[in-house]
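Table 4 source record.
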Amino acid sequence: MTHAFNHSRWEQERKARMGRVAGWRTINSAPEKTPVLVVKDGIMGVRERFGDSWQEPSIYAHDWDDDLEEPTHWMPLPPQP
């Protein structure tokens, strides 16, 4: 028996799970000028919001092209050990 993979249903379920994961919040509630953990399509990084734009804080800067210009969810950074 063969099952076809329904990508659109999988994507809808993934987005629904993202909203339910403890700690993750919708991006429109993110604070400004505060480093936070952000995610988009499974890619995570640390960013700061300045109005409608997102920037990587210089302390976390790297050379990766991680496509986090428009993140979808955020959560506070965990406390330092």
